[in-house]
Amino acid sequence: MKTLRRLATLAAAAGAAAVTAVGLAPAASAAPDPVLASPYLYQWGGQTSASAAMSATDVKAFTLAFMLSDGGCTPKWDGTRALTGSDATMINQIRSAGGDVIPSFGGWSGTKLGAKCTSASALAGAYQKVIDAYQLKAIDLDIENTDEFENAAVQDRILNAVKLTKQKNPGLRVVITIGTETTGPNTWGKRLINQAKAIGANVDVWSVMPFDFSNGGDMAAHTKSAVDGLKNQLKTTFGWNDDVAYRHSGLSSMNGKTDNAGETVTVANFKAIRDYAAGHHLARFTFWATNRDCSGGGECSGISQGKYDFTKIVAGYTG
After folding, report:
1. Among the options 144, 150, 263, 299, which is catalytic?
2. How many Å is the maximal CA-CA distance in the chain?
3. Is residue 305 scored above 50 in pLDDT?
């Protein structure tokens, strides 16, 4: 499914180096909302400089990928790097420049905390270590790997851990990011949403990844249809009206060529998606990833585009 994410994470695991501890600055009280407009950024390839992206685009927040299991229930960046070191340094740099971050747990590749932590309380404890380490305002749970997504017991463990984490951190916002069909969440996605309601997990934002559908088509239209489907499921589950459901919805697109041959999100597509998101006041508008936000192949988007074209579009999103 998410081949580009898979390859990147495997590369990180192979090349991770030891890091040294640094002090971490807390999120500034006037810092931007890390949920709303925060493109994904990772440390293992492509354009990894948060400072360069902020200077070039005026983007103020990043979704940092990925927090994984070290083989047990201990959270580490890409499953290898401690919570101190280069990642903490980057968070300090982002905050010093007036920005903020939202770490993402999960992704496609690597060992997942949801699967390795044997209870909801243990998983909540793993989340708490990261929240405390970075004094976070929000976390993103990217539940796309089958070990977590297509597993009822793990889905419930994650949702119960969210409930416990929200109780301990009343101001924390939790985003759950899942894959989608063009019509909205599939059976497993619908189950996850319904279980969140049943458990009382109090998820703040539900975000779908509207790509890897097929081998082409109008990606702006596919994205709108997928998010409309998410909105409809939230209406059904929670009894919200359209406006409230949209304001609990979000999307995480992909710039340029996706993992599926022939499927491409162009800059024009992404602008249309931005306009749709703004028109419905979506709570989250992002993409994978600033690292790839450059022209051509290799570790770039695979299309002809200006450097940081997609990040600039996200930077201008105000909800």
Report:
1. 144
2. 50
3. yes
